[in-house]
Amino acid sequence: DDDIFSSVFCENSDKLVNVHLFALAAKYYSLSNLGVCTPLEDVLEALKGDSEGAKGIKPDEFMNNKKSHEVQVMSELVDSIANYCGIKQVIDIGSGKGYLSSFLSMQYNLKVYGIDSSSSNTNGAHERNRKLKKHWRAYQSRGKESLKSQSLEKANNRPVENEVNCKTISEELLNNANSLQNQGQVIIQDLVPSCSFREMATLETNTETEADLVSETQSHETQLSEEVLAILSVLPADAVEDFSSSHDNCGELCEEEKVQRRVTSPKTKARKSSESNLYFPLTSCITAETELTDIITDLEDCMMVGLHTCGDLAANTLRIFTAKPEIKAVCSVGCCYHLLSEQFENQEECHDQVWGFPMCQYLKDEGWCCGRNARMSACLALERVAVGQMLPTESLFYRAVLQVIIEEIYGVTKSDRHVGKTFSKSSSFIDYVRRSLKKLELDDSKLPDSCIMDYYEKYKHRMNELEAFNMLKVVLAPCIEVLILLDRLCYLKEQENIAWSGLVKLFDPVKSPRCYAVIALKNQSC
Question: The CATH number of 19-140+277-387+474-522 is which of 3.40.50.12780, 3.40.50.150, 1.20.1440.230, 3.90.470.10?
Answer without folding.
Answer: 3.40.50.150
